[in-house]
Amino acid sequence: MEDVFGQALLDYHSNNYSEDIKTISSLDEEDVIPLPYLFRNYDQMPPLEQNALQLARGTILDIGCGAGGHALYLQEKGLAVTALDQSEGAIQVCQERGVKKTVHSSVLSYQKEKYDTLLLLMNGIGLAGRLVDMVQFLNHLKKLLKPNGQVLLDSSDIIYMYEQDEDGGYWIPSSDQYYGEVTFTMEYKGEKSAPFPWLYLDFNTLQNASWANGLACELVSEGNHYDYLAKLSFQQ
Hints:
Elements: H1 4-13, E1 21-25, E2 30-33, H2 47-55, E3 59-63, H3 69-76, E4 80-85, H4 88-97, E5 102-104, E6 115-120, H5 134-144, E7 145-156, E8 163-164, E9 170-171, E10 181-188, E11 191-192, E12 196-199, H6 203-212, E13 215-222, E14 227-234
Parallel strand pairs: 3-4, 3-6, 4-5, 6-7
Antiparallel strand pairs: 1-2, 1-10, 7-14, 8-9, 10-11, 10-12, 13-14
Domain Methyltransferase type: 61-152
InterPro entries: Methyltransf_11, SAM-dependent_MTases_sf
Keywords: Methyltransferase, Transferase
C-alpha cells in the first residue's frame, strides 16, 4: 500500500473507518491525523483556513487538496477551483465528493495553467521538503501564478517543540539543517509510507526566502499556537 494517505481517505469516505493515520517524526514524536478532521466543513475549519478561503479569488489551484474540503467550499461559492494532489486515493475521494476539476500530480510536475490564487493550506509549504529546496519550490509557484496572482499559505514556527533554557534560548540539536525540517512516516492499518521530508517555516524565514526569489510576503493573520497565514505575490 504505497498510497497510505489515500487509502485512509478512501476507507473513511466509504464508511470503513476503524482507525486514524499514525505519524512518526524525526522529532521522536508520535501523533495521529484524525480522519474525520480531513473531512471537516467550513464551520469546522480553524480561523486561518477560513480567512484564506475568504481571500481566495479568480481561478484557484488547491495544492495538496486532500479530501477536497477547501475545493468543495470554493466551488459552492461559484469559484473556478482545481484540486491537485499526488495521492491517487485523495483525488478519487475528491471526485466522488463532487469536485469538478481535479489533477493527480505532484505540484512540481504540474504547470499546465496559470492561476489567480494558489492555496497551500494545512502547512502546504511543507511540500517544499527542505529549506534548501525553497528556491526551486518558489520559482515553480511563480510559473503557476498569473501576473496579479497570490499564494495563500499557512505554516507554523515549531521552535516551541524544542527545550527552552532559563535565558529564553532554545536547545536545538547541533545540526546543519534548519530546525523546521522534519522527516515523517505515515502508518495506517499496519502499512507504512516511505519516509518523506516536511518543512515548517517561521514567518521571517519565509519572508526572506520569498524576497530573495522576487516575491513579496505579507503576514495576513496569526493563529493561537505559533501558526500564521501569509500571502505571497510578485514584487511591484
